[in-house]
Amino acid sequence: MGAPIMFPSLICSVFALLSLAAQTRIQAFKITNSDSFNTTHQNITLSAILQKSAEVCQTVVLKQGGNFVQLRSLTEVSVAAACLSPASAATLKSAISEIQLRNARVDIRYITDSKYHFDDESFEEGRNLITQGVSLVKACLKLKNYESARLQLGETLHTLQDFYSHSNWIELGNRSPYANLINPNLPLENLADKKTPTCQSCITDCTNNILNTIIKQKKLTSGYFSLISIFKPDGKCSHGGTLDMTSRMEPTGGINKDDPEASHGSLHLVAADVATAASKDLLEGIRRSTNDIEFLRLMGISSSSSVLCIVIDTSASMADEIAEVKRVTSFIIDSRRGTADAPSIYILVPFNSTNFGPMNKTTDPDEFKRLVNALSASGEGELKMSLSGLWLALAGAPTASEIFVFTNSPPIDFLKITTVLALIESTKSTVNFMLTNPLTNTSLGILNPLNLLYKTSALASGGQIIEVSKELLANTSSLITNSTVSSLVTIFQAVRNSGGTELFTFVVDSTVRNLTFYITGNPLLFSITAPSGQIQTSVQSEGPLGVIQTVVNFYTVRINTSRPEGQWSINIISALFYTLKVTGRSPVNFKFDFVEVVKIPQPGYFVYKSRPSASGNAKMLVSLLGSASGLLKEVALVDASSSSGVHKGNLENMGNGDYLVTMATVPKGEFYVHVNGQFNSSSTSVFQRQSPTQHKASIISISVLTNGTLVPGQSFKALFTLTTSTNSRTTYIIVVRNSAQYNMTYLPILPSTDTGIAVGFMELSVPANTTGGTEVILTIEAAQPGSTDTNYSFLRLAVSRAVAPPAGLSLSLWLSALTVLISLLSNQ
To answer: I need a surface site. Which of 122, 383, 545, 601 has the fewest CB within 10 A?
Structure first.
């Protein structure tokens, strides 16, 4: 178990320092609030990715004999269209957003670590970070771990981009990238040594403060930076700015080009242009290490955005179910081969009463078919490790995947339900359960009580729970074929626990095709009204609106019109629990994250992979995907079980389809995220979308600080802080799990201070033979005794084979911990 940490004493020693930092300027290319005179990490990254992706798309399209249309402007929508994959506009923007946010995170997490920013003339160390980062991106790509690759790419790009702002490369007259910086086989040349003076003092105008001898000799230097000390080697340049204490020491001033008002701000745009070109070069190196198709997958561009993920019980009694899964997967693979609906990723996780896994992930449909066909039914047991199998699938599947679980038994591993729910919420994936252990009288709509945890998981994810006999299982397979297609969006969703009569209305926009209603519950009646006024009831299996397929308690209504635009309604009458979900196919969707707006050390977003605070004032970063002209008009948190609980947010348009949303209040129970918008400012064509996954707020806040990378043969450490909005002494129950099942130590019970603050520590041992690029999902869960309220933190980690020092808790990590903790305290 981990030892306790003396955290409060460290707070006292640097609290004053961080208070000062809160009021100071930034120390890197800015992240937010860009304009025509200021280029940021965000748009440097965006521009480089769009340019390189367009180049690769052109190569792919021409090789395939297609016609590549030259682009006048580069956007996610235009690049995806030129790639002959317009549906990828949404996934391209989502991938870029992941990379951008991880890029921004470097300044939040590693403010004092000079090598991440090329400060303090740390050229060799910074170059090592870049080359090791690129190596890890390539290793993740090899194992199809695209999301981990994007996260590492974001970090690596930040360090590369900072070189051009923080060094004197631009002042030396260079207007192209330094190729040696991304090539570990080339030497870094003509570096100024630690004893060579590089700058003279300046006060207001620092344009020419680099010594003429340095310029003439083409010596490479960078500014020194420190939050704490004014010390630097004699005669050295400083980074500059009020955050940098070294700039107060002779020679005063600085040389950074982070923005137009920085010490060398006149070169800001030049530095940004070269940083963009360097970012493109780094991306080209990654492309050359793999192939064009895999590079485009990294960027979210593929012929399809769908995922086929099967989690299946392989016990002896499951022979019929396994045969049906073989049939369905073969049908999907064979019928969609070469089409836009062929899944881009295939995942298979088996389980039985004693074992679960491994997780098999591939992009090859024939390999997946071979894996499925190799399944055999053997062994038996009354209870199954189904939640463990689902846990592996959630950990390994891409964000927002559709997962199908087949079993005929309740779980033996019921204690994993909290981790499963945390992963569902974090990954925003949808889980559907195909259960062949129904009660005798399913016509009453009563779920088998042994399936209660499956119901909980399905509802949390926005999925379906279908209880049928083995004989009827084939009749439910349409759910799999309908849900594993590209560009599937959720338009409306509701859950009602006590039944009743209720009228639901929603808008279907002009981009939607394949409108489908899913209703679970029995007995119930419903009637659907189209925009035209036509009505079809649940007793009409074929009617004026479409076809209704009924399998026990599961209704599928496929609307037959190809243009369902307008306002629809459905009236449901039921005495018992029921669910409603309305989906369609559309290129327009949205993504969101709960974030903290960070001012220390610079403006940016820190993404919460945990539940927001129940006290309200929650911040969300919401992005509109797949539309070049759309505008979000409303973002709301909607109570999942009631139509009355709607909490609307205040929107701030951040540009490029991104919105910062402030929620003054949040629902007390489970909620969906709901958005309304229109396609341009003068249009009356409105749209609405909803998250299928349910979310929940918590009075517990949990923040985790790590050094970020797993290294074979070394221990990985994480520090986490817990606070509660009640500000009172409490005890926290801690559960930590990792998807690779590496050995871990941590304290399962943590007492807090009188104000509810506790600090925990965990250590994970990475086996020495672990393959580079292996992805590990770490969850740290916290609860209070006697309370149903829980919270968690979700971390996606990757194993690096690069030689690295032991992953201790550095000063940078401690300062980052204090930054987050102070922010938490200031919000109480």
So the answer is: 383
Q: For the domain that residue 744 is a member of, what is the CATH number?
A: 2.60.40.10
> Token pair for residue 814?
């401690």
Do 623 and 567 fall within a single domain?
A: no
Closest CA to 476 of 439, 529, 435: 435
User: Does residue 820 carry a pLDDT above 50?
Assistant: no
Residue 724 and residue 769 share a domain: yes
CATH number at residue 343: 3.40.50.410
Structure tokens, 676? 């309304």
Same domain, yes or no: 319 and 336: yes
266 and 143 part of one domain: yes
Do 679 and 753 share a domain, yes or no?
no
Contact call for residues 83 and 57 (beta carbons, < 8 A): yes
How far is residue 178's CA from residue 130's CA, in Å, rounded to a whole number? 13
Query: According to the model, what pLDDT value does residue 808 have?
Result: 42
Q: Does one domain contain both 759 and 820? A: yes
Token output for 482 = 């309908």
What is residue 339's predicted lDDT score, i.e. its pLDDT? 87
Cβ atoms of 601 and 27 closer than 8 Å: yes
Tokens coding 174: 């260079």
pLDDT higher than 50, residue 374: yes
Listed residue (225, 413, 233, 394) closest to 796, CA to CA = 394
Count: domains in the chain: 4
Taking only the tens place, the pLDDT of each residue in 498-543 is 878 999 999 999 999 999 999 998 889 999 999 999 999 999 999 9
Give the burial class of 374: count Cβ atoms within 10 A of its Cβ; 0-12 exposed, 13-18 middle, 19 or more buried. Answer: exposed
- Full residue range of the structural domain in which residue 803 is found: 700-826
- The stretch 237-248 carries a mean pLDDT of 93
Q: Please tell me the distance from the alpha carbon of residue 455 to that of residue 553, in angstroms, as a whole number.
A: 13
Q: How far is CA 268 from CA 196, 253, 381, 801, in A?
A: 26, 16, 67, 36
